């Protein structure tokens, strides 16, 4: 069985775009989330989420 042996696990961030109609999407970069938000009308909110 594999063991992490006390080392901190590596976390990554994704950017979650939540649109006013309730649709939620995740993007690997802030730029992609911004572009998707602009395409959708620019009224969504973007938050960084640690995974």
Keywords summarizing the entry:
elongated, alpha+beta, 51 residues
Task: Please summarize what this structure is.
This protein is of the alpha+beta class and 51 residues long. The protein contains 1 helix and 3 strands.
The Cα radius of gyration reads 15 Å
Terminal residue distance: 23 Å
Helical/strand content category: alpha+beta
Q: Calculate the mean pLDDT score and round it.
A: 90
What does the largest sheet look like? 3 strands, antiparallel
Our count of helices gives 1
Shape: elongated
Count of all domains: 1
β-strand amount = 25-35%
Number of strands: 3
| Physical arrangement of strands within the biggest beta sheet | 2-1-3
How is the quaternary structure best described?
single chain
């Amino acid at each position: 069985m594999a063991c992490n042996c006390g080392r901190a696990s590596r976390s990554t961030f994704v950017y979650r775009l939540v649109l006013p109609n309730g649709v939620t999407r995740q993007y690997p970069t802030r730029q992609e989330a911004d572009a998707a938000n602009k395409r959708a009308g620019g009224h969504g909110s973007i938050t960084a989420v640690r995974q």
